[in-house]
Automatic annotation (TrEMBL), chain A:
This is Branched-chain amino acid ABC transporter permease. It comes from Bradyrhizobium campsiandrae. CDD domains: TM_PBP1_LivM_like. Keywords: Cell membrane, Membrane, Transmembrane, Transmembrane helix. It is found in: Cell membrane. Its main location: membrane.
TrEMBL record, chain B:
It is a multi-pass membrane protein. Signal peptide: none annotated. Belongs to the binding-protein-dependent transport system permease family. LivHM subfamily. Its main location: membrane. InterPro entries: ABC_transp_permease (IPR001851), BCAA_transport_permease (IPR052157). It comes from the Bacteria. Keywords: Amino-acid transport, Cell membrane, Membrane, Transmembrane, Transmembrane helix, Transport. It is found in: Cell membrane. The chain crosses the membrane at residues 15-37, 44-62, 68-92, 104-124, 144-165, 194-215, 270-290. CDD domains: TM_PBP1_LivH_like. It comes from Bradyrhizobium campsiandrae. The keyword Chloroplast does not apply. This is Branched-chain amino acid ABC transporter permease.
Amino acid sequence: MTGQGRLLAWGIALAALAALPFVYRDPYHLHILVLILIWSFAYTSWSMMGRFGLVSLGHGGFMGIGAYVTALLWNHLGLSPWIGIPVSMVAAGALALIVGYPCFRFRITGHYFVLVTLALSGIVLQVITATRDYTGGSLGYTPNRASGSKLLALQFDDKTTWYLIALGVWLFGIAVWYWVDRSMARYALEAISEDEDAAAAAGVNVTAEKLKITLISALMTALAGAIYCQYQMFITPDTVSGIAVSLQMVFAAIVGGLFVSLGPTVGAIITILLAETLRIGFGTKAVGWDNLVYGVLLVLFIIFLPKGILGSLLDRLKPQPKVPRAHEQKAVQIARPGT
Amino acid sequence: MQAVLDIFDIYLLEAVINGILLGGVLALLALGLNLIFGVIDVTWICYAELVMIGMYAMYFMVQYYGISYFIAAPLTILLVAILGALLHYLVIAPLLTAPPINQLLATGGVLFVLQSFATVAFGIDFRNLGIRLPVLAFGDMNFSYARLLSFLAALVGMVAVYLFMTRTFTGTAIRAISQDRQIMALMGVDTKRIYLITSAIGGGLAGLAACLLVLQYDVHPFVGLSFGPITFLICVLGGLGNFIGGFIAAFVFAEIISLGGLFSDLEWGYVLAFAFFIVMMFIRPAGLLARRR
């Protein structure tokens, strides 16, 4: 597709998406769409880091901070979410920097990085549970209903408003994805993920580049948590924080396709539709079934389709690249050994 | 004033000793995970879930079928060992050449499978074995007999693994592979077989841990999450694949949790342990006893 055709397709699709709630008003379906959009945004935030080999299991922690800080500021200090959300994002960003800096400075990569971030989401979960006098512990937490202005409290009753907010946030996520995709940072990060020493030798500031993408990813994840909290008006440590949420992000991003912009969105559509279908089809008997299917799919995908559904599909559709001539082949091999 | 101090000291001593007893089981868990990491270079994120399955196996054998605890325990160890070997054969073996992150995430998928399998099959009720072991009173301190038993059994298990690793041909091959996996294949060692055996031993250690943990804790599908993360932290703190480092780190962590729990809630003990872990990553990024690579 040419650049203009692609832009046109995006424009039409967005217009259709934005017009949807005014034409179609079934509250249940709109609710599912809002959930899909919010989670897509969260998964996209994760994939910003994940696509460069920075697999974090700490994003459940960032999401929990986004949700709980916003709700706590509103309930205890009466701070509007318009202030609370930026504060929560700053908190998550600060945490990301505190944990990220030593990780990247001391070259903690691979397994170690995954396990350190795992500790991070563990801490957030335990802190939320331990401070049960304020956060309600494992029983969950509800932001107070606004007595005054709905807009100031960012609490709306109708699904249409939420749908548009979620659509805007999701679009913002995709825009950031493309912004990173077009930036120099992307090349730097790809070089880092292939070989850190070589990248550093080529003049890439490894620590700074990694910190930047981690910060962006953490800020966005905290925003997703806050929006989720404002929409659902009920959060528990297990739904917005902890290892299960982190793994869920990884799962959806991988199933959809980690390396394409809409991959995490496709992942969110699949996972949420799957969960809802099972819930409606089997009722309470289906408790646990959705995760069982997720788990099996995740294993199968990693073994057989590591690029995800959308990624593999796009690879099929793309025309085969022309066979390079002999001298070009040699150049290619020098540039990327091992591929 | 003096009386208050005396009581405080007794509690402190009790917490310290309880920490050591807890450390034994944690060290056992860490040993299994370290073994698999050191030899196969894979982290089983679902390790604690294997323990959970083992705990359910114990529960059903002892409570439902009335099998004696001491007969059920070896059966459970065998079952989880088979599970470990299966996990390696079905999930890890096809991914041996894939990037390590993919292997780790695939075991994350297995975590989902095991957890939800337990939810579907056994429900989310808390179940316990119903065996109430006496409490051991020593001076003014009280120790649960179950903890003491677990500590001793964990030590026996670790000594058995140590002897196996140092006194048998297979054990020697396992240690050799963890040093250089390419050369060992050239030396005529069947690496696939060794990997499978190692996975089975790792699973067996999880099974042993399950038999011991089921004495102290109720079992439910999410029980793995309560000690899984801490096991990973212990392994990383000790240096992944470093057995002695993992052993020491297990006791350090257990003491932090036990003492932190003494002064405040148990969750704060965990928070303290996690925070300690992150601080240690600043100071010693490659583990307490950093191994030269």
